[in-house]
Amino acid sequence: MANDITFSISRTRFDEDYSPAESSRLTTNFANLARGEHRQQNLRNALALIDGRCNDLAGHPDADRYRVELDIVSVTMQFEDGGLVERFPLIEVLDVTIVDQHSGDRHQGIVGNNFSSYLRDHDFAVRLPSAPSLPADFGLLHGQLFQHFLRSDAFGSEFDAEPVVCISVSTSQTYRQTGVVHPVLGAEYEHEHSSLTDDYFGRMGMQVRYCMPPGSKAPLAFYSRGDVLTDYSDLQLIGTIATMETFQKIYRPEIYNANEVAPSTFRPTLEHDDWTSTGIAYDREERSRLGVTQGRWTEEHLVTPHRDFLDRWLAEQTAHAGQALPAAPAALTH
Fold first, then answer.
1. Phi and psi dihedrals of 182, rounded to 5?
2. Residues with Cβ < 8 Å from 44, sequence gap 6 or more?
3. Statement: the pTM of the whole predicted model exceeds 0.90
4. Which residues of the chain have pLDDT under 50?
């Protein structure tokens, strides 16, 4: 393919000594926690919460058997445009390993979990607000790049299983239990209608299941390319739940560290005042501001200078897959 894109992967251990790399997206949960006067205590406390939740879900409430190790997986895309080799940081995810401290065994968890993307920042914080209506091709480039990465040698040489992305439920939806109960994922919920987030992940080939694990205060959204209820072992799911529920408790405590469990019909709100702080510092407003900053940076360093290359590449991808490329509204055509 003339307009080829390849990928490289680097790893950074997320532990109490973690410090964000210069290329790391500053809006990620882990980068936000690792700044400021109390950074090391923040990290230590967050990791302790993850380990405790992992052991609790695995039936070891004394919290001494399992330890969760987290690697930040940074994916860089590489391509040639105008005779020059270009590189751009595409996504960051978390890779989970569960260590059995009794036997010494290391169990591979799930990759994905937290999902961070400069291009997604651009789509939601820059492109969407400036558009008169939702662009017909919104999220298409991002989705095709993500799926191209999953087909790449870089992904295949590092990972054996498909990724799962776990995020918060939306405050603009009402959720109702379906009656399905999974031994680890817990009670399944369904939402009222498809959302822009669902459609965006759909471009990535991912579908959502909402589940509230045992001992949780609210359901989580699990996006996967298969069926999260059947495709992973209990311990793999436990590693993801322990990790991502902890992050949600820290930056959405009104929902995930509430003092009451979500009922069978549930509409989340950040106005809820009956919740308990984790004591871990997190700047939610800074995270929102940085999303705009990083979206503009993406426009300056990827979208604008390499627009023609990306358009050609996307056209080749959709033609190869037998898909029709949606036409953007006239005001957004370039």
1. -100, 145
2. 16
3. yes
4. 1, 27, 324-334
